[in-house]
## 1
Amino acid sequence: MKLIIKYSNNSLSNQKLDAIIVFIFEDSGLTGSGLNSLPAALKKNLNTSLKLKVFTGKKDNCQQLFSGHANIPQILAVGVGKKSEMNSETLRRAAGKAGKMLTSLKAKKIGFAVTSHLQKTSETDVGQVLVEGLTLGSYKFNQYKESHDEKSKLESIKIQCCDPENITSRKALKTGKMRADGTNLARNLGNTPANDLKPKDLASAAENIAKQHKIDCTVLEEKQMKKLGMEMLLGVSRGSREPAKLILMEYFHQKAKQTVALVGKGVTFDSGGISLKPGKNMDEMKFDMCGAAAVLGAMKIIGQLNPQINVIGVIAATENLPGGDAQRPGDIVTAYNGKRVEILNTDAEGRLILGDALSYVVKEFKPNAVIDLATLTGACITALGHYASGAITNNDALMEQVRKASNLSGDRVWQLPSFPEYGESIKGKYGDLQNIGVGDSGTIIGGMFLEHFVDKTPWVHLDIAGTAWNVKHIGYQPNSGATGVGVRLLADLIQNWEPIK
Ligand code: BES
Ligand code: ZN
Ligand code: MN
């Protein structure tokens, strides 16, 4: 389904529409909802449903109503909770909830109004937030359903944003749509099964985005990686017939003062390799490329935002399979930066491929900062569940910027400590390092392994194992499948970049 977003300065009540969406607070009813100009029939209907508590205005309460009014026959009443507790994230979630219900309305033309009651509560433009939420919420992955092909051609919904008070703008709506589309791109890549999304497909996705948005794209092949000495990445790839790809996307701005690298884990399927995973839920390891998807989605948005900064998007793409030539536990490989690494568990593959990608980008591009995103450890789900990505850093100022972007986007991150003692257990017995530690705190250990590959470059590692798929109870997230985590976070980080030393 396609959403077509339209902007107008007219009031909502002058429109002929199949349905309208109204955002209503739990504690102020219709009076405080900026909907005074609605036709009387609609207001009466809304008031009755409030009185009867068919609709309450509470967060997550979303109700389809019929108005009996010819020009606007349906109302989608969306609760936003208490007025005092409202911010852009609650608004985004409410819009997301509405987005989920769009198809059940059986409406082709739907309107909503941006009125001043919504404005003060949001640090980001409300129009942007609402369109972002609506577009994210209406996302569905049904490419593999029988009925998809004919249906997708027909289904489009026009969304009319009415802005008589000049609160938002056409541009803000466009930005909201663009941010959601970037996120939905990442969701699509994540949801695509591993038989249809190989490392080479991540490379073509990158090339497509690059072509559309004036970004340079280079794909390093295994032959080149071998020359460069990337044995950690190649070691993982050996167990699969599909060749690994190291994908480099370069966005340059003439007035850029700094360069930021975004590095994503692109394991298109993680079986564990010789250290084979158990069968239960192994299908979910098609999502092990969601870090890569986040980088791709973000680069697509960055290419359109045109920020005054250079951004290098890097994706280490491979499968982790136990083929006849797969690497074995006990193997010792030499990383791109020269460190010798003993592979004690072939299922700790993310840190291996990212280690080579990180040290390469640090050496080749000398970025002022690096962010990596990876579905790195199951332990991160144990630590933080599904409502925050885990962060490990070597630089507090950069972490603070990531935190700000997290607050803006609603894409939550939570820092974990990296006290030196945690890193002791990955010191190598036979080599310099080993790819797993002993004992608990697996997420921290995984992050600290990566730290060995960034030199002194300011760096934040985001473990998105818990946030990349199957996140429930967030209005704009699908009930199952990939979330597109990281995309809007990175977009906000880059857009609001403050140079760091
Ligand atoms: N991709 C997995 C991490 C993962 C597992 C993410 C389940 C989400 C759900 C990663 O490659 C992995 O296998 N990590 C191991 C590390 C361990 C061997 C030190 C893990 O978490 O078990
Ligand atoms: Zn993995
Ligand atoms: Mn693994």
## 2
Amino acid sequence: MILDIGFETMPREDLEAIQLRRLQATIERIYYNVPFYRKSLDENNIKPADIQSLDDLKRLPFTTKQNLRDNYPFGMFAVPMDNIVRIHASSGTTGKPTVVGYTARDIKTWSELMARSLAAGGASRGDIIHNAYGYGLFTGGLGVHYGAEKLGASVIPVSGGNTKRQIVLMKDFGPTILTSTPSYALHLAEVAEEVGVSFEDFKFKFGIFGAEPWSESMREELERKLYLVAVDIYGLSEVMGPGVSMECHEAKKGLHIFEDHFIPEIINPETEEVLSYGETGELVFTSITKEAFPVIRYRTRDITSLNPEPCICGRTHVRMNKVSGRSDDMLIIRGVNVFPSQIENVLMEIEGTEPHYQLVVDREDNLDVLTILVEVRENLFSDEVKILQDEERKIRKNIKDYLGISAKVKLVEPKTIARSEGKAIRVIDKRKI
Ligand code: DLL
């Protein structure tokens, strides 16, 4: 495929004209097709015809993850189920996931944006992409997959896990692009070393890493250990999946947001005031081409800033700096989004546990490890060891069943977890990224 990069290098004025047209069409669509949006626009006395300029976006109410959850599973869809061809999901605080849907045209758009992203990250036709993002409800695997095919590259749909076999495939197939979370990429390097193989002997040119925060020092480590150029890819299921923004391999300095499809804003997470370019705050997105699941001023909770300076790659789309954190307490453990409250819900349903717990997240062999410390009632401790072991097993199993993550569980005696005078310290994140 020859990529039409016209949209990516368009003068600002032309881009804004397209944005306005698409925004107006989106507002019209959601007003008439999604009861939630109609109600919230009515409550704010806004009619679709009131959106006359891009500045009018500011008048629209924000959408939060809670709003999506309240409309679980399909209440936010703007098209009949007959037109939905794909469903993905990401986790949410109640244990119920946030569900997103795509029409055939949405899948086409997403594939094109992923092809754009891979191209910006250095991939082209003729490359072999070793895709170690998970396939399934998570958007990473299939998102990259469709984009790679659209680009005309060869894709190896290896998914996550079975690490030693991945090393064998890398040796035998000679992939040139690696796509995975940055932590899994480092783990791959380590396992390779264990089995006596060096990435130096592989053919990788670029690594396209995302789905969790990673720092400049992690970039250096990835580049040194994997003998490739490491670039950042960002996205979230609610807005589309991977490919909302992408770092270009020429500059490696911030991620271009595909503004012909998504309008970004940065707000102060406390006051909700819209901030200027360069100021750090919470990233908010409005989708302007999605059919099945449009989002209006969706609060991502990701903290970053926007940089409008021209880029050496020639793209005119604004860049977001690397995500530096979140404005809520969501943790990303091996690519799975987890809120402490979800773990709390699971713990509280188990007989014998006290509402005192602490989550310790660390990295072992470059993989995230979650340890849950839970206080249990005194009488459990006076009983036999087997009862304690059963309790630990039950907690581990329920965490795995409800949240899909493996955790170590340590039962501790009452009053051993430090009490705080203010907010309880629920999370100790020891990962250095
Ligand atoms: O993680 C989509 C994705 C897949 C992006 C593969 C990149 C590569 P969710 O599971 O919905 O979607 O999680 C979205 O992950 O709000 C951020 O907090 C975090 N995140 C995603 N990419 C990055 C990144 C996918 N490059 C949440 N840097 C987002 C920092 C990231 N955080």
## 3
Amino acid sequence: MSETTPTHHLPPDGLRRFATIWCRALYPATATSMTKREFEDLLVALSERLAIALRARSFDPSPGVSVGEALVTAHCTAPEALTRALGVIDAYLLLYCADPAVLGPDEGRSRCAKLQHAIAAGFARALQERTRSEQEALSVAALTAQTEIANALHESETRFRAVFRDAALGIAIAGIDGEIIDTNESFARMMGSASPPRRRNVLDWTHPDDSPEVWRLQRELMRGEREHYQVEKPYGRTDGTVLWTNLTVSLLRDAEGEPRYMLVMVEDVSERRLLNLRLRYQATHDALTDLPNRSMFFERLEQALAAGSSQSRVGLCYLDLDGFKAVNDSLGHAVGDQLLIAVAERLQPCASGPGQMLARIGGDEFVALFVDPPTVDSVAELARRALDALATPVTVGDRELMVRASIGVVEGPTRHLTSAEVLRSADITMYRAKAEGGNRYALADPDSDARAISRHHLTHHLPAALKGCEFFIEYQPLVRMEDGSLEGAEALVRWSHPRHGVLGPDRFIPLAEHTGLIVPLGRWVLQEAVRQACQWQVRGIGGPRPLRVNVNLSPRQLHHPELVEDTVAVLEEAGLPPSALCLEVTETAMIRADENELRPLRELAELGVGIALDDFGTGYSNLANLRRLPANTLKLDRSFTQGLQRDPADPVDLKIVEGIVSLAHALRLSVTVEGVETSTQAEQLRELGCDSAQGWFYARPGPPERLPEAV
Ligand code: C2E
Ligand code: CA
Ligand code: CA
């Protein structure tokens, strides 16, 4: 034991208990002359070496080698001895000899496996050395007197034979030309042949996965330039399977020192190898989709960035599903998981070319890496393929789900780039694709990166802004067309940013939507607007008919499980009747929703809350579909009324608006028009039968105090 070892940290009870178990397993398999008690004491000493190695701050498995050797010295050479020794270590070493507070379970397992490996190696080497000394004894004996020779030879031979025959290791003896002379049964079994594979040559055992190193070592040994070598090497067995071995080959010399034989010792490490491969696979792959995971992706990306020459380039497509959170929240995680698996299957073939790899690096985030793409466009092409692959709906159980994605595409020289920079640029670009409506890809460029960084900055400050009351609401009147009276107002949120001044909702609502902060922000807007509507009521503004307040609801809020509860609570707390509130949901969000997702809106509508289909006409909805939606108002998007600004108005636009209005009325929906800026427009829309209107012609959005002046 070295002086630096903190022996007082070793658990003497644990060591003794471990040694007892070990002794119980090993003693029957030894040919030792020691008593059981003496043997156990020896094992305590060996256990101590293992425990110290296991607990060392920087791990070194080599004490395992000495333990393996000690086992051979103690005559633990029966075929099952090594297996038993390793079996006990596998099951009990960590339990009794490790300190779980210091050593994590993974690190513990890994150290234990390496120690086992070292023990097996030490064991094999000692056994081989011993075999060789037997062999030497054989030659020495040959030189002594005739009778002595006979005796010594006999005795030595018997002992050698016993080791050779019964060893769990595969042992073969070959001539110096490589021709096999004798093998034991373990060897024949490992090679997969019933009878020992004699008259074959060691040199035939090349395998496509051999490293060139192996055959160089072998040639050196055959020329007598090296005494032995040890390698890990695969063999093709006679049944076609592959055996992975830890192979030790030693040169046996005759009395004159001339190379005569080769002693080949083979330890079957196939299982250990499989275990290692499996562990490596698990550590580098995503359990859900079986794709390479984040750590493997970074490994590859870093390799590409490091190995690249001055001309090398790297491409990356960073893909994030649009609205995946909504699927997860409304349909449950099981459906979400199935969807991700299906998406992975769709995407996989898009990135299967040379230098390409698809990985899943987060919840609904996938990346395709393209090492050395021929052109920028080949990376964009990959992104297009990915979007195409998602174009048709995915079937999950009995549902058909539309999957859309936003992709950030980055391409550039590997020089001067770090993996973090590449990923950040891809991430920023992906958000740009999302902000531009999603279901598309965008190419990274420094200017928009800079803009996005400021977006990133805003996102970062949103939570504090909400806490610090930096938001306020402006109200824009809604006017009845029949008599120009005030029907209500739409609440439009603004952010009074300490550095950037007043920011419109288009600057931050998409960010809040993406980060989920829209839920608390939306709740604040709702509370504030409802409180305001109560004040208008109390002050009698709007005459006999109480004013209605319209509040925008973002898709994320629509999917929030507490939407109904929250809304009812806010109304009750303020004492506002549900009919004085109208929630505006965009047409796009509403037509995308399935029956489950519409249920909360339906419940609210049944309570008397108005539901408006916002930005109508921009979502290409099937008009027949309107019937199934719980809306009672349709807000015709500004783009429709633009054509009516001209004098005379565009006749096609007139016809379209007329058609929509009559269809809406047939479905008992009232029609509000947005963006009315001129009196001509207002007059025409009134004639077409629109019920109410909103726009600069009546009033711009403003503080709540200004509302009474609006009409
Ligand atoms: P929106 O719901 O379509 O709101 C109407 C937008 O049109 C407002 O822009 C309003 O200022 C603008 N507008 C009104 N009259 C006219 C007009 O005559 N001509 C023109 N050119 N524009 C007019 P704003 O306030 O910038 O809001 C933009 C969008 O932000 C809103 O569109 C709404 O979708 C969203 N938003 C606003 N407040 C909230 C909120 O509290 N929650 C959520 N989720 N979204 C909000
Ligand atoms: Ca709106
Ligand atoms: Ca609108």
